[in-house]
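Reviewer 2 asked us to include a model.

Predict the structure of this chain.
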Amino acid sequence: MCVCVCVCVSGCPQADLETQLRMRLELQKAHRDYQEDKARKEEATRLEEEEYRRQMMEKFAEDDRIEQMNAQKRRMKQLGWWAFSGSVHFATCFTCKCLKGFLLSPFFGLENC
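Predicted model (structure tokens):
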């Protein structure tokens, strides 16, 4: 058996074992690096997908809100604009021409003074 004090010559069994061991360690390190890189990429992809999903949910919620507003406007037009107006407006009386407040509704007309 060779007792290597300095660099072993080629063909020495101990040099071959050291080379094999070094190669094995390098391969193990390369595999670990590959696994870590793969895990980082998967995590980045997962985060991107979550962000995209969140943005799409926000967009869908906004679209639903707009659609509800449009449906409400459509219903108001179908029923007539006065059905949803409870505010008091002012107009002149037909008989004496005074300024009077009235509700915008077909059920409330301008009364005579």
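Residues 13-79 form the longest helix (67 residues). The radius of gyration is 42 Å. We have added this to the supplementary material.
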